[in-house]
Design goal:
Elements lengths: L6 H6 L14 H13 L3 H13 L3 H11 L16 H12 L3 H11 L2 H8 L10 H13 L4 H10 L4 H10 L10 E7 L2 E7 L4 H17 L23 H4 L3 H17 L3 E16 L5 E16 L6 E8 L7 H14 L9 E7 L1 H8 L8 H5 L6 E2 L3 E2 L10 E5 L21 E5 L2 E2 L6 H6 L12 E4 L6 H6 L3 E15 L4 E14 L2 E5 L3 E6 H4 L5 E4 L3 E3 L10 E3 L2 E11 L4
Length: 578
C-alpha cells in the first residue's frame, strides 16, 4: 500500500531536511541511474542497471522508484494526476534561475524537452538533499492543490534540486505537452535497401543508426522497384501552421473542458472525450540534392455524451490547424443534443433506405476516397477502377454528375503537405470532375514502367457539388421516408474491387417520415459499395463541405466533406449496441 503523509510533514519535509538523514532513497541516486539508463545502448544493459538499483532499495523508496521509472507519479489504479501547465513550469524555472520566460522558451524550442531546459538553467553547487519521499509529498500536494498555489509547490520541489535532479523532477510533473524528436535514414547499396531510425540524436546514436541501415541493406535482396532519390525540387509552402496552436497551454484546454463538463452536468448527461493539440516539423534530404522542410499544427476535440441509464449517446468531432477556429462549444452542444434526442429508440427492419448522412458519417465512409485512385492497382485488375483487358475506367462517368473530388494543398480550410507521394511537389488536381474519373495516381516506379509522368498527389480530399449546395434541413424536408445517420464506426473493407465496406451506425440514428424527424431508432449494420453509393442518379443532394475527420481517426486527419442525401443505401441487419 502507498505510504500516508500528513500535512505537517508535507509543509516541513523539504525545508528542514538534514543532509545526513537522506540515506537510502536519495533523489540524486535515482537521477544518476536514470542518466546511465538513458545513455545505455542496449535493452539488456538498461535492465541490468534497473535491477541493480532496485536491489539496493527497500519498502517506501522501492515503491516510489518503481512508479517514477514508469513515468507515474501515482499508481494507475488510483487515477490521480498532478497536472502542471507549461506556463507554470516556465514561471517556476524563470523565478528560480532569473532567466526571462522568453529565453526559456527559446531554449525549449532548441532542446525540445523542458526537462533538459531545467537541467541547463538550474545549476546548484550545494549538496543534494532531496529524497524520493520528498517527491512523493510534493506530488501529493500538487494533486490536491488548485490554481496559483501549484506554483509554490513546484518551486518548493525544484528549489533544492541539483541540475540532474531538476531534469527528472520536471519529467514527473506532467505539463500536458510531450515533445519527441527522431531521425531516420534509408541507404541503397547495389539496389539493396536498408532503413533505420532513432530518437537519440547525439553523434554516437546517429552514427549507429547509419551503420545499422547499411548492415540491413547488405543483407537485403535487390529491390526490383528501386528508383534513384530525387534531385532538387521546388516546393510551394502551405499555410498549415499556426503558432497559437503549437503553443496551446494546458490551462486553455482545461478551461474549455471545464465549460463542457458544466454543460454535461446541466443537461444531465455523462461526457467523455479527447482534446489534443499537435505541432510537428520535419525535414528530409537526399544524396542527389533535394531538401524539404515543413511544419504543421492540428488541434481536435471529440466528445461522446451518454444518458445516465446508458440507453442513448451522441458524438461530435471537429479539428482545425488554427485553435481559434475550433468551436468547442458547438462540439459539446451537438454531442449533448444527440444524446438527449436519441432516447427511447425504436426498432426498424434492415433493408434499402434513402439516407441523409451528416458530414461525420460521410467522413467515416469516404474520408480517404481520394487515395483510392491508384493507377497500378487499377491496371493490374485489383481495383474498382479496373476494366477488362488491363484497362482502367479513366474517363468514365462512374459517379453522379454532381460529384467533384479533388486535392488542393493550399486550400485555406484544409492545407495539405507541400510534397506528395515520393517527395514530388504537390499540385492541385482533380480525381473526379462532374462525375467523370479524370486522373489516376502514378508513383515514380509505375510511371516509368508505363512511360508516363508521375502524379503529384493527392495530399488531401475535398468533395464538392457541381450544383447549389443543400442544407441538412432541406435534405430532411425532401425525404418521404428515410434514415438520418450521425456517424459510422467499426468500418472494414470487404472487397477493394467493388470498393465495398461493412460497418455500423452509432451515436444517433433517426427515422425520417414525411419530411420530418419521426423518432430515434436502434443501430444498423450496413454493407455498401462506396462507388455505387456515389454513383449516377444515386446522389440526390449535396451539402456545403465542412472540415471533418473520421471518428476512428480521432481527429488526427481531416477532409472537406459535405452532408449527402443518398437515394439507396443498404442496411443488412440490426445491432443491439447503443
Amino acid at each position: 500500500m502507498p505510504p500516508n503523509h500528513n500535512q505537517r510533514r508535507a509543509e516541513s519535509a523539504m525545508v528542514d531536511r538534514d543532509t545526513d538523514t537522506v540515506g537510502q532513497g536519495a533523489l540524486i541516486e535515482f537521477a544518476a541511474v536514470a542518466e546511465w539508463i538513458e545513455a545505455a545502448t542496449s535493452r539488456l544493459a538498461k535492465i541490468a542497471l534497473l535491477s541493480q538499483y532496485f536491489a539496493q532499495l527497500q519498502d517506501d523508496p522501492l515503491y516510489y522508484a518503481v512508479h517514477y521509472f514508469a513515468g507515474q507519479g501515482f499508481p494507475q489504479r488510483e487515477r490521480r494526476l498532478a497536472p502542471i501547465g507549461e506556463l507554470t513550469l516556465v514561471t517556476a524555472l524563470s523565478g528560480l534561475s532569473g532567466i526571462e520566460p522568453a529565453k526559456l522558451n527559446a531554449h525549449l524550442k532548441r532542446l525540445g524537452d523542458l526537462a533538459e531546459v531545467a537541467a541547463l538553467v538550474l545549476v546548484r553547487q550545494s549538496e543534494p538533499i532531496l529524497t524520493l519521499e520528498d517527491v512523493a509529498i510534493g506530488l501529493e500536494q500538487l494533486a490536491k492543490t488548485q490554481g496559483r498555489r501549484k506554483l509554490s509547490w513546484v518551486i518548493r520541489l525544484l528549489e533544492p534540486a541539483t541540475s540532474v535532479e531538476a531534469k527528472y523532477l520536471t519529467r514527473l510533473l506532467p505539463s500536458g505537452k510531450r515533445i519527441g524528436r527522431s531521425a531516420n535514414v534509408t541507404v541503397w547499396i547495389g539496389g539493396r535497401r536498408g532503413s533505420s531510425s532513432t530518437n537519440d540524436l547525439d553523434d554516437a546514436s546517429l552514427k549507429e543508426m547509419v551503420e545499422q541501415a547499411e548492415k540491413i541493406a547488405r543483407l537485403s535482396p535487390v529491390d526490383r522497384e528501386y528508383m534513384p532519390t530525387l534531385g532538387r525540387q521546388e516546393y510551394k509552402p502551405t499555410p498549415g501552421y499556426v503558432a497559437a496552436t503549437a503553443d496551446l497551454a494546458l490551462e486553455t484546454r482545461a478551461k474549455a473542458i471545464a465549460d463542457i463538463i458544466s454543460e454535461c452536468e446541466k443537461n444531465r448527461v455523462i461526457g467523455a472525450g479527447f482534446h489534443s493539440a499537435r505541432a510537428q516539423a520535419g525535414a528530409s534530404a537526399t544524396k542527389n540534392g533535394n531538401f524539404e522542410f515543413e511544419r504543421s499544427t492540428n488541434v481536435s476535440l471529440s466528445m461522446t455524451a451518454r444518458t445516465p441509464d446508458g440507453t442513448s449517446s451522441g458524438y461530435f468531432l471537429r479539428s482545425h490547424y488554427d485553435i481559434a477556429r475550433l468551436d468547442t462549444k458547438r462540439i459539446a452542444s451537438e454531442a449533448i443534443r444527440k444524446a438527449r434526442e436519441g432516447v427511447n429508440a425504436r426498432t426498424v427492419e434492415p433493408g434499402q433506405y434513402t439516407v441523409v448522412l451528416e458530414p461525420q458519417a460521410v467522413a467515416d465512409l469516404v474520408g480517404n476516397l481520394g487515395f483510392m485512385f491508384n493507377a497500378r492497382s487499377a491496371e493490374e485488375g485489383r481495383s474498382v477502377l479496373s476494366a477488362p483487358g488491363g484497362k482502367t475506367r479513366l474517363g468514365e462517368k462512374m459517379f453522379d454528375e454532381k460529384i467533384n473530388i479533388y486535392s488542393d494543398p493550399w486550400h485555406p480550410e484544409l492545407p495539405g503537405s507541400q510534397s506528395a507521394q515520393g517527395g514530388i511537389p504537390a499540385q492541385k488536381m482533380y480525381l473526379v470532375r462532374n462525375g467523370v474519373v479524370e486522373n489516376l495516381i502514378y508513383n515514380r516506379f509505375w510511371a516509368k514502367q508505363k512511360e508516363r509522368q508521375p502524379t503529384p498527389g493527392p495530399v488531401n480530399t475535398i468533395l464538392e457539388s457541381s450544383s447549389r449546395p443543400a442544407t441538412l434541413e432541406e435534405m430532411i424536408r425532401s425525404t418521404e421516408r428515410g434514415i438520418l445517420v450521425s456517424r459510422f464506426w467499426y468500418i472494414r473493407s470487404t472487397d477493394p474491387r467493388t470498393a465495398s465496406s461493412t460497418g455500423l451506425t452509432r451515436d444517433g440514428v433517426w427515422l425520417i417520415e414525411k419530411g420530418k424527424i419521426a423518432y430515434p431508432i436502434g443501430n444498423l449494420r450496413f454493407n455498401q459499395s462506396m462507388t455505387q453509393m456515389l454513383g449516377p442518379e444515386n446522389v440526390e443532394m449535396i451539402g456545403t463541405p465542412e472540415r471533418v475527420g473520421s471518428s476512428e481517426g480521432g481527429g488526427a486527419g481531416a477532409s472537406l466533406l459535405p452532408a449527402l442525401k443518398i437515394k439507396v443505401f443498404n442496411f443488412t441487419s440490426r445491432s443491439e449496441a447503443v
